[in-house]
Structure formats: C-alpha cells, structure tokens
C-alpha cells in the first residue's frame, strides 16, 4: 500500500512537474507572442506611417466595385471623404475624375479583374490641375491600384518632351542641312576613323551610300595619312585646322580646302570647300593686277597707288616725270605726306596759305566712303592738273594726275569759236535750224525765226518738227508740202542721209531747202531764198530757147546755102575741066595754070561745103551705120586718097599700119573721114606757105581694148591758145597766128565723129615743132 502511494506520489509529482513545465512553457510562449504582437504592432505602425508618407498610395478595388481608399487619395481626387465605390470617383465642378478618365479607369480595372492584366494610366482630376498616375495589378480577387501624384512630374515630363521634340526637330534639321549641304562633310571618332559622312562626301568619293563609305574608310584625298593629319593636329591642339590638298572628283583634279574642327563631345568634324575656282581666280587676279599695272605704266596720265599703310606701292613713268622725282626715292616707298611735300618742293601743287591743313584734307582721301573725288589743281606757270582720288577696297588710295593744260586752252579756244559761230549763225542770209534725233528744235538763227514769223516763246519751248510743219503750212503756196519738212528731218536723223528740194511760199518767193545729218546725230535744216535766182534762171531759159530757135534757123540756112552753092560750083568745076581738057581749044601755059587754080579752088570749096553739111547734121551714136570694119584697110584707103595731094605739095608721106590695129564695130565712112581730115590738116600744116619737103606720118596700132590712130607733121605748129581752140566749131579765130593758113573744119569734124564712136581725140602742138593728133577708139 505504501508502495502504491509512493508510486502515486511520484506520479503526482511528475504530473505536477509536467504541469509546471507546461505552464512555464505556456507563459514563455505567451510572453514571446506578446512581444511579437508588440513588434508587429510597431512594425505595422511604422509601415502605416511609411505608407501614409509614401508618394504612392494603394487603393483596393473589390470585384463588386467597392473600394478601400486612404484619406490622402480622397484628398488627391478632391473628395470630401473616401469613396466607397469606384463609380464615385467621377465628378464635376472641380472634383473627382473627368468623365473620359473615369470611363477609361473603370475599363482598365474591369480588364484587370477579368484577365489579370496590369495597366498604367495617367488621369486628371477636376479642372485638370492635378495629374495622378494609376498603376493597377490583380491580387487574388481584388485589384490594387497604386496612385501617384504626378502633377509636378508631368509638367517636367511635358517640358522635357517639348525640349526633346525641339531638339529632335533641330537635330533633324541639322541632319538634313548636313545631308543637303553641297560640301563634303564628315565626322571622325576619337580614333580618327570615319564615323559619319553626308551625300556630298559619298558622291565625291564615288561610294554607293554613307554606310559603304564609312565601312570601307574611303578618304576624300589620297592617302589615309594625309587625310587624317589635319584631324590629328586638331585633336592634339584643340583648335580648328585647315589646309589645301588636291583631290580627284568626277575625273577632274580639284583643289580642296580641308577644315578639321575638334568637338566638345569628342571626335573631329570636318568639311571640304572646293577652292579650285578661287585659286584660279587668284591667279587671274594676280595676272590682272600685273596687266593693269603694265597698262597704267603706259598711260599718259600720272598714276600713284598707296597701300593701306599710306606708303607708295606703285607709280608709273608719267607720274615720275610730271613731278620730277627720282626713281630711287620713289622705290623706297615714301609715305603719302612725304610725297605731297616733295611735290610742293617741285612747285607741282597749288599755292595755298595753310599747307599743313591742305595736306590734312588730302589725307582724308583714304577715309572717304562716297566713291572717288575729283579736283583741279592750278599750278604756277599755267599748268592745269585734273586729280582723281579713288579709295581702294583694301584701304589704299589710287591717285590719277592728268595734265589738262592743253585741254583747257582748247576749251577756251572752243568757247571763242562757239561765240564766233553763234554770231555767224545769227547773221547768215540762210535760215537755219538744228533738230535733235527726237525731232525737237535745238538751235535756230534770226533768219529762221523771221522767215516763218515765229514767236520767241514758241521756239524757246523747243517744239517738235511736226508742230513746226503745222505752223508753216499756211505760209506755203501748197500747204501739203509742209509734211516734207518733217520727213526730211526724220530722214536726216534716222537714215543719216542728206536730202534737198525747193518750195514756194504763198507770197511768191522761192526757197531752196536741205536737211543735212550732223556728226552728233542731229540734223541741220537750211533754207535759202532763191527768188532772184529763179527769176534769172527763167530769163536765161527764155534766152536759151530763143538761141536754140536762132541756131536752128542758122543751121537750116547754112544747109540750104550749101545745097544752093553746089549748083554753081558744079558748073564752074565742069566748065573748068572742059577748058583744061581742051574742049575750047588749046590753051597757053599761063591759061593752063589759071584753069588748074580754078579746079583746085573748086575742089577745096566742095570739100568745105561737105564739111559744113556734116557740121549741120547730128553725129551721135544712134546716127552711125555700124559694121565690122577693118581699121587697117580703112586707114590705107584714106591715106591713098590723100597721096596725090601730098605728092603735089612735095610732102614726105609715110604710112605705118600695124596688124594690131585690128577690127572695130564702127561706121566705116565716118572712120575714113576722120583719117582724111587729120591727114588733110597735117599735109596743109607741113606745106604751109612756101615751105616744101615737110613730113607727114600716119601710124595705126592697137591693143585688146582700143585701136589707136596717130597723125603727125613737122609744120610750124600752134601756140597753146590756138591748140586749145583747134576742135571748136566756128571759133572766132581760125587763122593760125603768124600764118595765113586757116585751121578749117577738119579737126572739129574729126572730133565729132570720134566722140560719136565713144572714143577720144587729143592734139599736142608747139610752135616750130609740129603737131601730133592721137585718136583712140574702143573695141566695144
């Protein structure tokens, strides 16, 4: 029993111990739970505090649309109290979401509940002054909306977006500008390798596109080292570099100025400018300057050029001679003031009281901006210089000195001549008017104004020629002729040709007018009163008609008398021949001489009558009976006819007919009579008086164009006055001075017949040396 109690006591103790251990364990567990709960509460408070201060606030949306919203979010939405349902977020009058954002947010939440699809949206509250960013995620059956007040952030985003848009637009414009630039442009990275090129660069190196050029590293100039040298120098120095290098573009060698510019962001930008034309222009400019200086050196005017430092840069020889300066001194490039002082020493500047002030005024030539200035220098001794000061673009000055002494003297003489011309112009008997190219009257004299009775005011207005023609029409006998004045002036000014004519005035006067083109393009219109000349001309015309009538009467009378004289002359010749033949019985020797003299005189008188008849007839080209004539045969026939006469007068008679005399289309009878008249005159001259043994020569020759007849004698000859009248018909003096021989009508007839054939006849004679007559007849 005791054992059982002992076991019971032990069991009870064990049970108590177990209960105590369990209580202790439970107490420890409770304490730990209490401490954990306190820690959890503190952590919760910390999290709630962090959540309340966090920039993002959660809103829980249940499937039935109920929401769990912090007070802070309600304030963001402008609500008086947290909303219970999602639909309560929409509102007006400055609170809640606008209708569009509320609808969109509701749709996003429904989509997230159905498809567990998260979303991110920015919504605006009230009047749009507040922007909220809403990020939604599904958590189980609920949707948690994390809301962030992005009002300030959105402003910054809009600002940055605008800046980004502007920068993007500027970048696009810059890129387009670089791409559209006609210059090759490129960019190199820090390793000096090509990283970007534009289209002009691609075209210059004949690449397919920019990527191909960059990938292949095609350089614009030959040699990678040459191409990268400028970029390396720009990178090392930090300053832009430029150089000129040759390149081959489109198969032609071009000179390029390469620019390499280091960029602040790193890398080297470069571009190339084609300066081939500029280089050629520089060469042309240098050559032009050299040619210009060579030309200036050959001018008669003195030229001096000063540089921008006002030292003498160029002078020509006329300048050195004009101012008596030594070449060595000028070659030392003296300053402008020193040159003026040396001019003053040579007395080649105007005499002025204040020379320093005058020199300062001339120094201002370098600073003037209104172009060249010009002034006249009157030097001692009467020399006149025209000085032109031309500022140069580089700040220098070009001076031109022209000696106008002779021009001034000529101008003075010209003024005198103009005054003399004006006085002469106004006192001429002719009426004169000078019209310009546009038809306006420029000058006139008093005679012109008085002739047409023009007012001085009318002429001073320089009227047109049409107005003048209209005014003078009433003063002309035929008013329609007034238009000829305007036409003549226009013809002289426009066509530059002279025209003249005559016009009658209504008062009976007659004027001769002319329009003469002048060298300056104007026209001179002149009118001369020819009334007296017209009256005299009419009187002479009447007298001439009377003389022509008298000449016709005289010619008819001579012709009739010649025919009347032939009848008794024929009877005298016939009876004399019968007596000479012995029909009236044998005659004594003395009677035979008398009968011979009668026959000679009858023959001579018959020839004279024939000559007179020939003179009374018209002997022109139309009256000739032309035929193909052998001139040699005609000349011999005429010579044979005069041979007995030459033998009778004991004349040495020589006939020389050349084969070259040829043939002519002529009147054979008239040609024969020409030869006979000339030979008859020569025989008479060679045997004049008691002279015997004279010589007569007939020579006939020719060429391709003419046939020539020459008849000469060694008679007494003629003086100049007689020779001049030898071919005149019915001249006052037909007896050769110092002789009793008449010239006769042979020579005038010969001239008449020769000229009818279109030929010429000349007579050469000197007293005591004989006479030579030359006849030339054209082949055609």
UniProtKB/TrEMBL annotation:
Instruction: Please verify whether the record's keywords include Transferase.
Output: yes
GO function terms (MF aspect): kinase activity
The kind of enzyme this is, by top-level EC class, is transferase
EC number of the protein: 2.7.13.3
Does Magnesium appear among the keywords?
A: no
- InterPro entries documented for this protein: HATPase_C_sf, HATPase_dom, His_kinase_dom, HisK_dim/P_dom, HisK_dim/P_sf, PAS-like_dom_sf, Sensor_HK_Regulatory, Sig_transdc_His_kin-like_C
For this protein, the record's SUPFAM superfamilies field holds:
ATPase domain of HSP90 chaperone/DNA topoisomerase II/histidine kinase, Homodimeric domain of signal transducing histidine kinase, PYP-like sensor domain (PAS domain)
Alphabetical keyword list = Kinase, Phosphoprotein, Transferase, Two-component regulatory system
Superkingdom of source: Bacteria
One Pfam entry name = PAS_7
Q: Where's the Histidine kinase domain?
A: 560-780
What name is this protein filed under? histidine kinase
List the transmembrane segments: none
Q: Which reaction does it catalyse?
A: ATP + protein L-histidine = ADP + protein N-phospho-L-histidine
